[in-house]
């Protein structure tokens, strides 16, 4: 195991510990609904994150099946949270003002710098993209503690509360990414290409651009992940009907992926973008964010089709 893998294991273990603490939190709540199944869900998830790389794949697979079953039977419930008094929260927000955004800004800047250095400085080759995100998270946490003079224990308290609020949808991006890889390996792109060939007339560039962009958006709505949709739809439509017909692959790839993001704006499957913010903001209608984004997504999709038609074949 090299340095990059060791650092990654440390970050995965830290995430796993947070999951385990959410399970403990459920067990310690005397009024929690379905505390046993809730705790099992979080303990299994923690188990796969901490030891998954050292276990036979079939054991990890069984854990994932168990997690899916518990979620399907609605066996995961949120336990009681020690929520701060709203008046104190309001007073703190007024006092801190825009300083609250400094840790978030550090998170983004440090991630970019760390990933760049990891790719260019030999001594920092352990700083892969994933590890850079972990390092940026630690830096942002240290900045937040120093800036707001908060006791370090609140990193754990609020971390578990946040994860508990989000619930099972927090792991949806990982599952959907795996599903996209599975679809690609299973040859779903080829099946799509065979079906689309009956729709797109020969040498019709505009229709090919429209079908590709719309298919990217629709498959992203189904998958909830633009990256997962990209591999399948680009293999099935982008390559045979655009790139093989003379389209610039750079333009097709860039606009194809962002066309998929138009679908991201419209789907509850993209939980980290649409459902998670609604849960964190405690919005009454969990689909309110999606409803406000759909008109923008439709307009942007039309613009993507036009851009691809005018620039991909230049």
Short account of what is shown:
This protein is mainly alpha-helical.
Provide an overview of this structure:
There is one protein chain. The chain has 3 domains: 3-72, no CATH class; 86-150; 171-311, no CATH class. 72% of the residues lie in helices and 0% in strands. The chain contains 14 helices and no strands. It has helices at 3-28, 35-51, 57-72, 86-96, 102-120, 129-148, 153-166, 172-185, 188-196, 205-223, 226-241, 249-264, 275-280, 288-311.
How would you describe this structure in keywords?
314 residues; mainly alpha; globular
Global morphology: globular
Q: Strand count, sense and closure of the main sheet?
A: none
Number of domains: 3
Mean pLDDT: 83
By DSSP (H or I, 4+ residues per run), the number of helices equals 14
N-to-C order of helices and strands:
HHHHHHHHHHHHHH
Beta strands, count = 0
- Tell me the radius of gyration: 22 Å
What is the straight-line distance between the termini?
A: 47 Å
Indicate the percent of residues in helices: over 70%
How much strand? Answer: under 5%
| Secondary-structure class | mainly alpha
Low-confidence parts: none
């Amino acid at each position: 195991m090299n340095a990059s893998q060791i650092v990654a294991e440390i970050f995965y273990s830290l995430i796993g510990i947070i999951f385990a603490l959410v399970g403990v939190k459920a067990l310690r709540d005397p009024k929690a609904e379905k505390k046993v199944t809730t705790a099992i869900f979080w303990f299994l998830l923690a188990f796969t994150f901490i030891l998954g790389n050292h276990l036979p794949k079939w054991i990890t697979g069984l854990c994932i099946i168990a997690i899916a079953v518990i979620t399907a039977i609605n066996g995961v419930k949120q336990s009681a949270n020690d929520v701060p008094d709203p008046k104190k929260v309001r007073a703190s927000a007024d006092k801190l003002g825009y300083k609250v955004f400094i840790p978030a800004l550090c998170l983004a800047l440090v991630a970019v710098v760390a990933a760049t250095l990891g790719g260019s400085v030999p001594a920092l080759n352990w700083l892969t993209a994933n590890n850079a995100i972990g390092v940026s998270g630690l830096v942002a946490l240290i900045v937040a503690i120093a800036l707001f003079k908060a006791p370090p224990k609140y990193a754990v308290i609020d971390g578990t509360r946040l994860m508990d609020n989000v619930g099972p949808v927090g792991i949806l991006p990982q599952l959907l990414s795996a599903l996209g890889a599975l679809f690609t390996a299973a040859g779903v792109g080829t099946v799509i290409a065979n079906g689309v060939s009956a729709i797109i007339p020969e040498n019709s560039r505009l229709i090919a651009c429209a079908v590709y962009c719309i298919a990217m958006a629709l498959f992203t709505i189904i998958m909830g992940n633009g990256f997962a949709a990209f591999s399948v739809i680009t293999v099935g439509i982008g390559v045979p009907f655009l790139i093989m017909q003379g389209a610039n692959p750079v333009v097709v790839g860039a606009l194809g992926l962002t066309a998929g993001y138009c679908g991201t704006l419209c789907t509850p499957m993209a939980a980290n973008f649409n459902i998670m913010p609604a849960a964190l903001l405690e919005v009454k209608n969990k689909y309110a964010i999606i409803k406000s984004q759909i008109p923008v997504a439709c307009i942007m999709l039309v613009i993507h089709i036009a851009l691809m038609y005018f620039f991909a074949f230049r």
